Request: fold
Amino acid sequence: MGAAFWIKRYFLAAVPLFAILAGWEWVKGTTTSADIISAAIWSALAAGIFVGAAYRRYRKALACEACDAGRKP
Reply:
């Protein structure tokens, strides 16, 4: 799996998370530029952790029960 795969996976995690966090601030009625920046930072960090953990599992060839749960034997 090349760099494009991991970059795509990162954005597939970060963009929806940002939309959820920014939408939540909008629903609360406290949307300011600081809230939008905070949502962007938190989504970037969370997506980085998610992709970093997946990349680590991939590089070390570790089994992932949650990842394999939907696959047929």
Observations:
- The helical segments are 3-28, 33-60, 65-68.
